[in-house]
Amino acid sequence: MASAKPKFPAIKPGGSLILAWQVKGKHVVVVGGGEVAAGRIVHCLNADAVVTVVCPTSGLNPEVAFRVSEGQVKHTDRNFEQSDLDDADMVLVAIDDPAASTAIWKLCKERRIPANIADVPPECDFYFGSVHRDGPLQIMVSTNGKGPRLAASIRKFIAKQLPSNAGNAINSIGNLRVKLRSIAPDPAESRKRMAWMTKVSDTFSWEEMCKLTDEDMDFLLRYYPENKAPSFSELRIAQGAPDPQGVDPFDGSFGFSVGA
Amino acid sequence: MASAKPKFPAIKPGGSLILAWQVKGKHVVVVGGGEVAAGRIVHCLNADAVVTVVCPTSGLNPEVAFRVSEGQVKHTDRNFEQSDLDDADMVLVAIDDPAASTAIWKLCKERRIPANIADVPPECDFYFGSVHRDGPLQIMVSTNGKGPRLAASIRKFIAKQLPSNAGNAINSIGNLRVKLRSIAPDPAESRKRMAWMTKVSDTFSWEEMCKLTDEDMDFLLRYYPENKAPSFSELRIAQGAPDPQGVDPFDGSFGFSVGA
């Protein structure tokens, strides 16, 4: 019996489940104080985690020692002990001791604590990748363990392509949503708000989004009541910017009326 | 007392900890069968998870119903019950019932099961982002909840910039590493192998890496014994490709001798 094949996304097995883990105020225990640990610590602090480094002072590299001395991380000045897991929400191990690493991994699994043992893929609930950061924007490149250096190279390539103010686009959208909620706070209007945000997002290229000023946004909100979204150039022209096309900004030729 | 400030990466708080979660063979419970659930299911199947959808058949949308009928996911044909968590490694909730969602979240937290309640940020251990996938390459764009549609738009922008065979570059590097290990299997040589892989990765642009054929790689390995890395054009010329510069490929003018 022949049947039309439904057009749903094809499954592409073999990847990871890439997730933006929320560790704000969570307790991450980093075991080790070398270069790998230093990298992990930066990732965690960038995500507002509370970090404890477990490592004898003699084993801290200059960067980790610096973060300890600045109070950016807590420091347990000895080798790992089981009690270090008592209030851990996540454990990252980066020590040159496979037996000790495996022992810590097993303890974490008994306690259902997510853990990563550096360089031991089977003893990892998750892998790290190469992350580009621009304000609220984070782009993570993973090669699923096949080429960490290439991941970093791809991440740099991507960063070079992005407009320098890409993070601003996201802040703009976030601000626009907040402003919108303040002029149209009715919970019953949530569907209308969402539909308009979608319309604006679909109308503007994200490069244009980057250029949106606070003034632009306030003006843009005037289009909300009628659920209209002007193009970026229409928006600028409507505000009285010089019109490259010679069109009178207020002649109604854009097919929508400007509320105000 | 003035002291030189160490030059370590500055902390940029406010982000997430983006991780490539390993869920191969792990049990992910998806509660709900609508559009959001459908998206979650694809993410999980792409990462080789074992997925159970908990939702009455009447609540399944066509895509989820299709995945159930194809046996891609297991199906529990009723509303959520506490026992659904018994062997869950991760729980994703996407139902239009805030009270039930919160109850599930609390149960997950009691049992230390990582969970995501769609559209309820405070009840999420992690957020999803927009993911580009090309073979082993995964690029995840997160706006940290500020603009999901913009994340998708940035993801598409990035995908457009990448060479169409970017995933191949990663497979190439992976293959080269495997080939290298087979011609130089001595564990004592691991440092030399790593140094050479690094040299090659640093010499080739990743666009060039994409173009590496199997033949190129076999030829490239001849440079390993002397820890040399030719440029991509040198490699092609050395193999007898037409030389745009008119240089005799074997006159030794590249500054290294070709082993073999």
In words, what does this structure look like?
Two copies of one chain form a homodimer. The first copy, chain A, has 260 residues and is an alpha/beta fold. Chain A folds into three domains: 27-128, NAD(P)-binding Rossmann-like Domain (Rossmann fold, 3-Layer(aba) Sandwich); 129-162, Double Stranded RNA Binding Domain; 166-238, Siro heme synthase C-terminal domain-like, CATH 1.10.3280. Helix content of chain A is 38%, strand content 15%. In chain A, the strands form two sheets. In chain A, strands 4-3-2-5-6 form a five-stranded parallel sheet, with helices on both faces. A two-stranded antiparallel sheet of chain A has the order 8-9. The first copy, chain A, is elongated and about 65 Å long. Chains A and B meet through β1, α1, α2, β7 and β9 of A and β1, α1, α2, β7 and β9 of B. β7 of chain A pairs antiparallel with β1 (17-21) of chain B.
Largest sheet of chain A: 5 strands, parallel
Portion in strands of chain A? 5-15%
Strand order of the largest sheet of chain A: 4-3-2-5-6
- At CATH level 2, the architecture of the largest domain in chain A is 3-Layer(aba) Sandwich
Instruction: Enumerate the spans of chain A where pLDDT stays under 50 for 5 or more consecutive residues.
Output: 246-260
User: Helix segment count of chain A?
Assistant: 9
Strand element count of chain A: 9
Secondary structure class of chain A reads alpha/beta
Helicity level of chain A: 25-40%
H/E element sequence of chain A:
EEHEHEEHEEEEHHHHHH
Taking Cα atoms only, what radius of gyration of chain A do you get, to the nearest Å? 25 Å
Overall 3D shape of chain A: elongated
- Biggest interface found: A-B, 77 and 76 residues
Distance between the termini of chain A: 61 Å
The name of the CATH superfamily of the largest domain in chain A reads: NAD(P)-binding Rossmann-like Domain
Instruction: List the domain count of chain A as a whole number.
Output: 3
Output mean pLDDT of chain A: 87
Classify the fold: give the CATH topology of the largest domain in chain A: Rossmann fold
CATH class of the largest domain in chain A: Alpha Beta
Domain Siroheme biosynthesis protein Met8 C-terminal (chains A, B): 163-230
GO biological process, one term (chains A, B): siroheme biosynthetic process
InterPro entries (chains A, B): Met8-like, Met8_C, NAD(P)-bd_dom_sf, Sirohaem_synthase_central, Sirohaem_synthase_N
Domain Siroheme synthase central (chains A, B): 134-161
